[in-house]
Every structure is written in C-alpha cells, then in structure tokens.
Amino acid sequence: MDETIRRKIQALLDAHRIMTIATLRPDGWPQATTVGYVNEGLVLYFLCGLESQKAANIARDDRVSLTIDHDTPDIMRITGLSMAARARPVLDPAEGGRILRLLPGKYPEQKTPLPIPMPTADQVRIFRIEPVVISVLDYSLGFGHTDLVTC
C-alpha cells in the first residue's frame, strides 16, 4: 500500500469514532447499524450486545462492509472511506480489556462520568475488523474521486 494513501486512511480513522457497519442477516438482507469504534492502525474494534443481531450475523458470516464519513456544507470537501472487511470476535480477555480501555480516549470531550458503568469484556461482544479492500473518497481531488486499496 502506498504510504500517502495509508496516512490518509489512518487520518480518517483517527479523526472519527462512529461508523456504519453492514452485516448479512439470515434471510440474505444486509443490516446496517451505526456503532462507535476505536482503531489501532488500520484495524478497527467495536462492541455490541452478546445476543445482538450483529453478533449473530457475524457468527454466521464474518464478511462486513462499513463506512466512515462526516457531513460538510461544501460538496467538494466530502471525504470518507468504505471498507470490505472480516470481523472476528476478540476472545482473549486481556485484549478485550485493553480495547475497552481505549474507548474513552475517542471521547475526550466527555466531562461527566457515564450514567452507567463501562461494560467488562465478558458483558459484551468485541469484534476486530481487519480490512480486505478500502475505498477512500475525496471530492477535493474531483467529484466522486476514490482510491481503491487492496490490503
């Protein structure tokens, strides 16, 4: 992967904390859901309920698609990325605890304590998302300009 595009992807991942992730339901329909995430490099992590539809969908088929973007009043400043990836559960309790400790760092503006305690790794399902293909959108390089990167 070209270092310039890697830095651009990294900057987009680091600058955001919400993504829309699509999984495949048992009936074949995609299910898109908004979730928070943290990342280490190009690897993303998110959590969901133990019995959530997302967790069941991923247990059956680990292929996911996701988008990360933001709103802008200037069309030619639209940026974001979409990703085809594999989502796998984090099974190591130490790794799960480490990821949960990273989450508050994505919310530095949070001045008051959460109204509920942060969950522990055994109370949620944590997924590691490893990219397969990343499409980087940058309208400043032309209307609808994308760079496609295979990982």
Account of the 3D structure:
With 151 residues, the protein is α+β, with helices and mostly antiparallel strands. The protein contains three helices and eight strands. Strands 1, 2, 3, 4, 5, 6, 7 and 8 form an eight-stranded antiparallel beta sheet that branches. A hairpin with a 2-residue loop joins strand 3 (38-40) and strand 4. The longest helix has 13 residues, at 3-15. 23% of the residues are buried.
C-alpha termini separation = 7 Å
Q: Considering DSSP H and I runs of 4 or more, what fraction of the residues is helical?
A: 10-25%
Q: Helix count?
A: 3
Structural class: alpha+beta
Order of helices and strands: HEEEEHEEHEE
C-alpha geometry: globular
Mean pLDDT: 93
What would you report as the Rg, rounded to the nearest angstrom?
16 Å
Largest sheet: 8 strands, antiparallel
Extract low-pLDDT stretches. Answer: none
Protein name: Pyridoxamine 5'-phosphate oxidase family protein
InterPro entries: F420H2_bilvrd_red/Heme_oxyg (IPR052019), Pyridox_Oxase_N (IPR011576), Split_barrel_FMN-bd (IPR012349)
Organism: Marilutibacter chinensis
Keywords: Oxidoreductase
Note the main attributes of this structure:
151 residues, alpha+beta, 8-stranded antiparallel β-sheet, 8 strands, Split_barrel_FMN-bd, Pyridoxamine 5'-phosphate oxidase family protein
Compact summary:
The chain is α+β, with helices and mostly antiparallel strands and 151 residues long. It contains 3 helices and 8 strands; from the N terminus they run αββββαββαββ.
